[in-house]
Structures are given as structure tokens and as C-alpha cells.
């Protein structure tokens, strides 16, 4: 293999060999730059951005924990009968959230499931804060997940009737 390379180079003129050497001296650093260094630089930038996002999230969670520690306990609310899916639907309509609901249903035991696939987080959080004490259900499951749209979330909520005394 090296003999073939030496023979090919020997057949070239001195000027052609110099041009070939110059091309190699330019191509190798360019290949190193575009093939290795720039992808590493991009990966480092993405990692730094992910790190700053994680730090910001951690600070936000710590602030919420500190805030939760300062809240006074909620006074016990009198037991109320569950309001049912129709009343929940009316509350959603009043808040302008009904068109964002992807699932609203109840089973025979009175368990209500409610799901939003893509809804403004602030609107649904305000609705939950306002509605929860009066609707006669306990929250058995509440799950928020971020969506691709900034400020929006997916929500899965399971409500159960309160247990008797």
C-alpha cells in the first residue's frame, strides 16, 4: 500500500507535490475543526444550558418548599356530597376550560377522572384552587406534565368521594 502511494507521489512534479501537501495541511485542521471541535462545543453549550435549567428548577422547588412551610393549615371543611360530573363540567365551562378537556368521566363508585392534554397551567391551577373546597371530592391523584408549549401542561386528575366518618 505504501509502495503504491510512493510511486504515485514520485510520478507527480515537485509543484504538484507541494500543492498536494498544502491541500493536506489545510484539509486536516479543517476536518478536525468541523468533525470534532465544533460538535464538542455545541454539546458543551447544550450541557451548560441543561445545567442552568436544572439549577433554576431546583431553586423554584426550594422556594415552593419554603412557601409551603409558611402556609397555615387549612381549616377542616364540612363534609359535602360530591357534586358530580355535570357540576364539574359547568365549572369548567364557567372558567373557559371545557374545550381543553380530553377526558371527563365517572365510574359506578363515584370516582371521577379528568384529563387535559394541553392547557395553560395558570388557568387550570386557578380553577383547581377555586373549585377544590366546594366540590365534595378528595384528590386521589394529580399529575402535571410539561408539554412542548411554554406555559402549558398536561393534567391527569382522579377524584374520589370522601370516606364516611
Q: What does this protein look like?
A:
With 165 residues, this protein is of the alpha+beta class. The protein is 55% helix and 20% strand. It contains 4 helices and 4 strands. The chain has helices spanning 2-11, 14-70, 84-95, 121-131; strands at residues 101-106, 112-120, 138-146, 152-160. A 4-stranded antiparallel sheet has the order 1-2-4-3. A hairpin with a 5-residue loop joins strand 3 (138-146) and strand 4 (152-160). The longest helix has 57 residues, at 14-70. It starts with a helix and ends in a 5-residue tail after the last strand. 7% of the residues are buried. The mean pLDDT is 86.
Task: Write the topology of this structure.
Blueprint: H1 2-11, H2 14-70, H3 84-95, E1 101-106, E2 112-120, H4 121-131, E3 138-146, E4 152-160
Antiparallel strand pairs: 1-2, 2-4, 3-4
